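Write out the 3D structure for:
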Amino acid sequence: MSLKASPRAMVPFVSVDNMMRLVHRIGIETFIADLAQAIEEDFAKWDQFDKTPRVGSHSDVGVIELMPTSDGVLYGFKYVNGHPKNMGEGLQTVTAFGVLSDVYSGYPQLFTEMTLLTALRTAAMSAVATKHLAAPGADTMAMIGNGAQSEFQCLAVKAVCGVQTVRLYDIDPAATEKCARNLAGLGLNIITCTSPEQAVEGAQIITTATADKDMQTILTDNMVGAGVHINAIGGDCPGKTELHRDIVARASVFVEYPPQTRIEGEIQQMAPDHPVTELWQVITGQTKGRKSPDEVTLFDGVGFAIEDFSALRYVHQRIKDTPYYIDLDLIADPDDPRDLFGMLKRAK
């Protein structure tokens, strides 16, 4: 499934510009729906993957992380940061790049930007969770936190789950205005709100995606009615949450990988043995998702390496026979593998 290597073992590189071209060529909603399908395919073979919590280097202002995994055939990793303070300095809160490699040779097969791709795969993951956990017929979502993730999240639940109405709220009205403006004309009924309480009115799905690196209470218990599904995706590192613990206590909680989520997710507020269900078990039919119409379901999403692997795998497939990548001379590959010095000497 690899792109054919040149004699110099060139590595395909997808720049930000080419990623945007690829997304527009495929279509944003189709791209997200395809990513959702790729994630479901990989979650269905969960046992084949190496799994480890991401490796984080934390500071007072943010975190830099590596997220590796392998299915035994391909190996992928993502470098990603999370710096909430960046927004006040005109910088992205999250930036990322990723690599996909061939396990047999160890040679990289793809090097790509993943700032855009992470937003797309995060939205696809929320859509997968919503598809399996929200009440049938749910068509209205409250989007609380209208920053860089918000438009992707709204379009994902539209494309995968058929959501028709989004109710937007952010503590910064300019962010809400930006989100509404970007979503205009894309087939959604958009309602801007002035409080989180107003945003959740009539919503069967609530997605929270806020950036503060702190224990926040974006949703209180009285804001979440019976039958609601919540995607809590903003609490994604130690000491950072969005929901009051009473919501977590009464909800049925679904997670990607418990050893990571218990450190980073909403359930870090709870006892170490607080019951959770792994989402891959729902996707494969090993256990049920929503069990009753009145049940509150919570996807405690922190992002896991297999989702990035799925995104890398998908992009690697879709750039074949396209102009949306360039070859990088990244790998020293002398004619004689034992003569690396000779290759250097001849270059003089």
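The radius of gyration is 21 Å.
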